[in-house]
Every structure is written in C-alpha cells, then in structure tokens.
C-alpha cells in the first residue's frame, strides 16, 4: 500500500513538471492535430485563392504552383466588394452605437438605483434573451419593409439587430456596474454631484472595459449576421455575408475566385477578433457566468 | 452646473411631494446615506423616477418595437390565411397550426433540430472537455493555441459554410481527394448531396465551427478550480484521471450546464449554415424549423403558415428552455455553490 503511494507521487510530480516546462510529446502532437483541423479549412481557402481553377482541379490538395495574384486583385478591383464592405461596416457601426448607448443607459438605473420596478424591468430584458430574431422574422420583415419603409436601408437592419442584442448587453453590463464600489457614488454625492453627473463623470469613464466588451460582441454579431440582411437587403445594399453567399452561387465554377472573395471577406472580422480577443472571450464568459 | 439644476428641482415642486409620495413606495428610505436631506426626499423621488424613465425608455422602446410587436404580430398572422397583401380577413383559427403540424417537412425539421441539439452536445462536450484539459497546462504556446481554436467561432457561418461547401464538393473537393488517396471512395452525390449523410455532414461542420466556443468557456471554468484541490488530491495519491473525474469535471458542472443551454438555444435557431450548405435539401433531409419558416414565408408567401411555424418554434424553445432550467440548471441556482463561485470569479 505504502509502496504504491510512494511510487505514484514521484510519477505525479514528473508529470506536473513536464506540464510546466513544455509538456510531453503527446500533448504537443494532439495540440498540433487540433490546430491542423481547426485552421486547415481556413488556410485551404486562403491558399486556394492564390491558385488557378486549373490547378485546383488537377490537384486539389496541392500548394499554389505558381502563386497567382489575379483572383485577389480581381476581387479588390471589384467595386461590389467595397460596396458590400461599406454596407457591412455602416450597419455594424450603427448597431454597435445603439446597443452600447441604450445598453449602458438602461443598465445604470437597473444596477444602481433602488426602485420598485427594478427587478421586473430587468426580467423583461432577461426574457428578451429567449426570443431569437428567427421567431419573429416574418412579421419583422413586414414591419420594417412595409410599415416603417426601412427595407433595403442601413437603419432597417441596424435597429432590429440592436433590439435583439440589447438583452445580452444589459445582462452583461448590469453586474459590471453593480460591482463599482458604492463609496465612489457616496463621495460624488458629498461633493454635490447629482446622479446624472455621477453617470457622466464617473460611471461612464469607469465602465469603459464593459462597454468595449458588449460593443465588440454587438459588432461581430452584426458583421456576421445573415438572416435579417437576407430578407431585408437587395442589390447595392447587400452586406458581405450576402455578397459572399451570392458570389459563391453565381460563380460556382470559379472556385479560386470564390476562395479569394471569401478570404478577403473574412479578413476584417479576423483582424478585429485578434485585436479584441480578450474582450470577446471575457464577454462570452461573462454571459455564461450570468 | 449640475448642482444648480439639482437645487432648483429640489426646492421648487414642494407641493407635488404628496402626490409623489403616495404612489411610489419610498425606497429612498433604504439609503441611509441620504438621510440628512430627508426634507427634500419626496421631490427628489420624483426627479429620480424621471431619471429612471429617461435612462430605461430608449432600450425598452426599441425592444417593444422590434421584439414585442413582431412576436404579437406572428401570433396574429398565424390564425389568418394571408399571402402578404390585402387586409387580414380570412380568419382560419388554428388551421395553420394543423397544417404545419401535419406537414411532414416541418415535423422532420423538428426532428432534425432535436438531432442537432443532441448531436452537438454529445460530440462537443467530450471533445471540448478533452481539448480544454489538454490546453489547461502551462505551455509556452498556450495563448496561441487558444487563439487558433477560437478562430472558427469568430468567422461568420456564411464564410465557414462557403469554404466547407467547396471542401465537400463531390470528387474534386479536398476531402474527397484526400479520401481517394487513402483508398476510400466518397459518396457519388457528395456528402451534402446524399440524403442519408447530409444532416451528419452539417453536424460535423457545425462541430468545427462551435467547438472553439466550448473550449474557451470550459478553459475559463477550469481557471476557477483552486489549485489547492489538485495538490490535496495529489498528496492523497489520486491519479490524473481520478483528479479529472472527481474534482475537475464536478467543479466544472455549472459551466458545462450553462454551455449546454447556449448550445441548445443555438441549435434550435439553426439557419445560416444549413441555408448555405444545403438550402434544406436534398429531399428536405436537412431542413430545420427556421429554414422551413423562412422558405414558407419568403419563397411561397405563406405568411400565415410561416407565422404558425414560428409560434411553434417559440413554444418548443420555451418548453426546452424551461425544462432545462428545471432539471439541469436548477442545481446552479441553489445559492451555496454558485455564490461561492461568483466570488472567486471577481
């Protein structure tokens, strides 16, 4: 019995120290496999854009030989691509601004005021999490395109997107605002600042990180959105996901062109993600922690 | 400036104090710090209510306009036979619901949604857990690995779908080429073109897309497990496997259960990926409730039927969410463990 435990202990120790100083070969091999499977399809698309259709047909699994730039330059010289990118950007920016401004405004009293309807109002937002845009998509389409006359406009997509992003925003922001110490508010009151003054001068600057988090989530959500733009936007007003989908069906024979178009369309989201990675991850984790 | 405003508003409407006091229960009393201003409490209360109104109204209005109204409209449309033009006159009661529920395409779609919910959790839970445990050690490249594993989640479903559609092309796609080199013949109609395989292929692409989210969330949960527990277990002679099974996974419980909930809700709404990869075909073998209601609504202009389908989708989602809450998440809302975890997190 005692020999068994003594023999296990050193074994555990070496395992742990191995973990600390680089890990064993198996761990690296497994990690490499995971990386290959994760990045493989993305890299294949990027590299496919540097090949010709003939190359792709002859040897689908080969590297570019020679490297061809014409697919990428073709997309970059395509005014439609830039038009889609502009639409995507504008809609995402509008969505983000509405979500962040309205979200922090609503979260402030729900976090720091004492009033009777506080929890019921918060529950309204929590229940909003349960309503995906999909459920209301048909009436939403009719409401926006006929009743509000906002079909095929940036606002027509941004406003409902913001509405559906607000519940999550408020659920993330409220605990963030509650966590700001009460002493700050008391000190501000002693100095004669009103609650609105406290909101502007103290709370807003301090909740920067929280706002960036919800802003990034709203931006990425809007940038990637497909269903609502699909129903509401046509022609010139289409966003990048719509453009990618349509390009791939219209030019289905031009595989290399599709790869180039897709790659260029994913670059903005990837750059944004790499820059804001911490925020996205912490926001999602905050959402799960509830 | 704000000070001046405050004084004015606090002194002028002294008479309104009775009205303001009568309605909202005086919550200001709870704030001990404000007691020196007790005389001004009632007008301050009114001002406070105005402030609350000012802050909360825009968000509530937006939600009422674009969430509440469309949902009520969906319920209303669902009892009419309506093709999208003219007034709502052809009242048909629950006939649209009967039509939807008797439509095999819809009931199959419901089954597909349930298969994808179950499949996502059954595949991603062990795989995500394994990768999270793998990455949860101190490696030099850990940060890089985390970033990489999260990339598919950040791409839009459309982009992921278009790339996978190319990879899965019959014969000439990368996957069939690689398989052919290994001596395996891909299906003649392609992975997405064979009715028996299409749903599973979609499920695999979804796994690729969403596994990163599971890993990232599980890793965050792992960070909340105190090191002392591992050390204590090691001193007691527990093996690595025993430690994971008896300590890590139970303590990860709340994270796993919440992730399961998110995954379920996402699977119920599945639309983008299916629309891109198969459009619901072949032979309706991959339709989901969302693709069903979109094609009924936009392609066939059957707004009544589409609305009935969306009400049913919502009811299914609600039933699943409530039962998940009741049977699985319930443990987490019991104060004792969850509160402790929350403290650790902050």
UniProtKB/TrEMBL annotation, chain A:
Residues 85-276 form the ABC transmembrane type-1 domain. InterPro entries: MetI-like, MetI-like_sf. PROSITE patterns: ABC_TM1. Keywords: Cell membrane, Membrane, Transmembrane, Transmembrane helix, Transport. Signal peptide: none annotated. The chain crosses the membrane at residues 21-44, 84-108, 120-142, 154-177, 198-223, 256-275. The keyword Repressor does not apply. The keyword Repressor does not apply. It is found in: Cell membrane. It is a multi-pass membrane protein. Belongs to the binding-protein-dependent transport system permease family. This is Sugar ABC transporter permease.
Automatic annotation (TrEMBL), chain B:
It is a multi-pass membrane protein. Keywords: Cell membrane, Membrane, Transmembrane, Transmembrane helix, Transport. The keyword Magnesium does not apply. Coiled coil: none annotated. Its main location: membrane. Pfam families: BPD_transp_1 (PF00528). Residues 13-42 are annotated as: Disordered. SUPFAM superfamilies: MetI-like (SSF161098). It is found in: Cell membrane. The chain crosses the membrane at residues 52-72, 114-135, 147-167, 197-220, 259-283, 303-324. Residues 110-324 form the ABC transmembrane type-1 domain. It comes from the Bacteria. Belongs to the binding-protein-dependent transport system permease family. This is Sugar ABC transporter permease. It comes from Glutamicibacter ardleyensis. The lineage of its organism: Bacteria, Bacillati, Actinomycetota, Actinomycetes, Micrococcales.
């Amino acid at each position: 019995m005692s020999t068994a435990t003594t023999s296990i202990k050193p074994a555990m120790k070496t395992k742990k120290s191995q973990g600390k100083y680089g890990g064993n070969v198996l761990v690296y091999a497994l990690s490499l496999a995971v990386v290959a499977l994760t990045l493989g399809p993305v890299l294949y698309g990027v590299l496919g854009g540097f090949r010709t259709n003939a190359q792709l047909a002859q040897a689908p699994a080969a590297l570019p030989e020679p490297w061809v730039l014409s697919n990428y330059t073709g997309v970059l010289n395509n005014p439609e691509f830039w038009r889609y990118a502009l639409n995507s950007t504008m809609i995402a920016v509008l969505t983000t601004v509405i979500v962040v401004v309205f979200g922090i405004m609503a979260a402030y009293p729900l976090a720091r005021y004492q009033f009777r309807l506080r929890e019921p109002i918060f529950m309204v937002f929590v229940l909003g999490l349960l309503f995906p845009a999909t459920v209301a998509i048909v009436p939403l389409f009719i409401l926006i395109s006929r009743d509000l006359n906002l079909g095929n406009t940036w606002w027509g997509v941004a406003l409902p997107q913001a509405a559906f992003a607000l519940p999550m925003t408020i659920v993330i922001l409220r605990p963030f605002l509650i966590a700001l110490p009460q002493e700050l508010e008391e000190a501000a009151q002693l100095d004669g600042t009103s609650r609105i003054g406290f909101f502007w001068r103290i709370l807003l600057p301090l909740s920067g990180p929280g706002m960036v988090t919800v802003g990034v989530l709203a931006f990425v959500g809007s940038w990637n959105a497909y269903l609502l733009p699909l129903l509401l936007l046509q022609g010139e007003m289409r966003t990048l996901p719509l453009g990618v989908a349509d390009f791939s069906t219209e030019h289905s024979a031009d595989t290399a062109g599709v790869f180039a178009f897709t790659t260029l369309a994913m670059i903005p989201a990837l750059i944004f993600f790499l820059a804001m990675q911490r925020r996205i991850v912490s926001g999602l984790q905050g959402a799960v922690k509830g | 400036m704000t000070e001046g405003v405050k004084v004015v508003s606090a002194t002028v409407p002294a008479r309104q104090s009775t009205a303001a006091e009568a309605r909202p229960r005086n919550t200001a009393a709870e704030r001990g710090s404000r007691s020196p201003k007790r005389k001004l409490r009632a007008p301050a209360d009114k001002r406070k209510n105005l402030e609350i109104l000012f802050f909360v109204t825009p968000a509530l209005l937006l939600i009422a306009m674009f969430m509440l109204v469309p949902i009520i409209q969906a319920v209303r449309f669902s009892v009419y036979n309506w093709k999208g033009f003219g007034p709502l006159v052809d009242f048909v009661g629950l006939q649209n619901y009967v039509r939807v529920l008797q439509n095999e395409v819809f009931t199959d779609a419901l089954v597909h949604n349930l298969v994808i919910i179950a499949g996502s959790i059954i595949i991603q839970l062990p795989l995500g857990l394994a990768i999270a445990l793998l990455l949860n050690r101190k490696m030099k490249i850990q940060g890089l690995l985390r970033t990489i594993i999260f990339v598919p989640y950040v791409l839009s479903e459309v982009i992921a779908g278009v790339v996978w559609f190319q990879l899965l092309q019959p014969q000439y796609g990368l996957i069939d080429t690689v398989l052919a080199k290994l001596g395996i013949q891909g299906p003649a109609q392609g992975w997405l073109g064979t009715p028996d395989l299409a749903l599973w292929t979609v499920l695999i692409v979804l796994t690729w897309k969403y596994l990163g989210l599971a890993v990232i969330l599980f890793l965050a949960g792992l960070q909340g497990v105190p090191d002392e527990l591992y050390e204590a277990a090691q001193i007691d002679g527990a093996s690595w496997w025993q430690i994971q099974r008896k300590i890590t996974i139970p303590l990860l419980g709340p994270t796993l259960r919440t992730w399961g909930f998110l995954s379920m809700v996402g699977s119920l709404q599945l639309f983008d990926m299916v629309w891109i990869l198969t459009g619901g075909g072949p032979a309706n073998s991959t339709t989901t409730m969302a693709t069903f209601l979109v094609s009924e609504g936009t392609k066939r202009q059957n707004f009544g039927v589409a609305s009935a389908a969306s009400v049913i989708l919502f009811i299914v989602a609600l039933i699943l969410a409530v039962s998940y809450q009741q049977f699985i998440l319930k443990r987490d809302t019991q104060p004792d463990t969850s509160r402790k975890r929350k403290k650790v997190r902050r």
